[in-house]
Amino acid sequence: MHKDIHIVIIGGGLAGLTAAIHLALKGKKVTVIEKNNYPKHKVCGEYISNEVLPYLHTLGIYPKDHGVKRISNFLFSNHSGSSLEISLPLGGFGISRYAIDQLLFDRAKEVGVICIQDLVIDLKYENEIFKVKTRKSVLEATYVIGAYGKRSGVDVTLSRKFIKNTSPWLAVKAHYKADFPEDLVALHNFDGGYCGLSKVETGAVNVCYLADYKTFKKYKDLQSYQNEVLEKNKYLKDFFTTATPLFKKPLTISQIFFEDKTTIENHILMIGDSAGLIHPLCGNGMAMAIHSAKIASDCLLHHIYVGSSRRELELAYTAQWKSVFAKRMRNGAMIQKGLFNKRIAKLGVSILQRSPSLLKKVITSTHGTILSDEF
Ligand SMILES: Cc1cc2nc3c(=O)[nH]c(=O)nc-3n(C[C@H](O)[C@H](O)[C@H](O)COP(=O)(O)OP(=O)(O)OC[C@H]3O[C@@H](n4cnc5c(N)ncnc54)[C@H](O)[C@@H]3O)c2cc1C
């Protein structure tokens, strides 16, 4: 009976490919549908928390064999450039999305995942079977995992609540050649946003910032926004004055939603950003994408082996997702709110300068512990 099971995963980013590898290693027939080709640059801070490393190893993925930068220190500065630096509680590593997504894609193919390059445009669930429609075909599946990221046409098809709203956020990312410590991730606040900097496997510095559209739209282009807003922070001014851009032009995205989402929608198990996006300043979205893929895969495998009902599977996944991530998401939202208030950010730095261990607690409150390598 089990061999007839077919799991279709919509989206081949970190969450989708991780779940695909996990399930394929457990002998399941898995198809991933990804609209883009690999490798591809993506807007992201490109700092991954070490909490997922042991789990990635069990899947046969060894990022540290690919020149990643080991990151153990964190520097924070507020709008006026007042700063503090601490060692990170768990630390992490710097790797570009160009490299890590390709690494996972190669491993997925190696373990027998069927990878299709196509766009999912519709899906239906009837009589325990999903029909997933892409531009080129229709696939039947026993289970569908939604791993299509922050926002997609699939959300429109599913009439998800958040999709009707507009988001006030946009993000910009580019790589630079610059003198920057390999073991550091920096977060610099500016009026209406914050900017993360850290090195990736190529030796380039990844610069990624989140900005409030209301502030941004007053400027005629990215360059003037950078000069007139970001560079008011002295750390960012020093960086941009000496760094050489490595991209022809920065990548940009908009419509970034941080609102609550559902973990199940029309019987689809949502993972990664499709289930919820933590505020990027926490630097934990990728670890959460990978971790949620593990939780969904474990729940699905348990359900298949014990023969529980689909409803039991959905309840179990939702409960586990909430118990692992809900608090982290709330804490992230609170910190972001504080950071956008100049007075609180100023006061925050002066308190944290006197008690740096408090900053470690703040960071810990938005991260998990080392993820078990039980598999
Ligand atoms: C500005 C910013 C900075 C960030 N910095 C960090 C950081 O430093 N560290 C960190 O841990 N996290 C960071 N994050 C969060 C992190 O980028 C995400 O949490 C992570 O990418 C989620 O992975 P995912 O697999 O859920 O989604 P994605 O990586 O977005 O993958 C989704 C995939 O689905 C595909 N897709 C979408 N629709 C369809 C469709 N209809 N059919 C087929 N395919 C489809 C897309 O092409 C994409 O490849 C940041 C986020 C932002 C916005």
What does this structure look like?
Helix 1 (14-25) runs parallel beside helix 3, helix 1 (14-25) packs parallel to helix 8 (285-306) and helix 10 crosses helix 11. This protein starts with 5 loop residues before the first strand and ends in an 11-residue tail after the last helix. With 375 residues, the chain is an alpha/beta fold. The longest helix has 30 residues, at 310-339. The protein is 35% helix and 27% strand. The protein has a domain at 2-42 and 97-165 and 257-364: FAD/NAD(P)-binding domain (3-Layer(bba) Sandwich). It is globular and about 60 Å long. Strands 3, 4, 5, 11, 12, 13, 14, 15 and 16 form a nine-stranded mixed β-sheet that branches. The protein has a six-stranded mixed β-sheet with strand order 6-2-1-10-18-17. It is built from eleven helices and 18 strands. Bound molecules: flavin-adenine dinucleotide. The site of flavin-adenine dinucleotide (FAD) has 40 residues, from helix 1, strand 2, strand 3, helix 4 and strand 14.
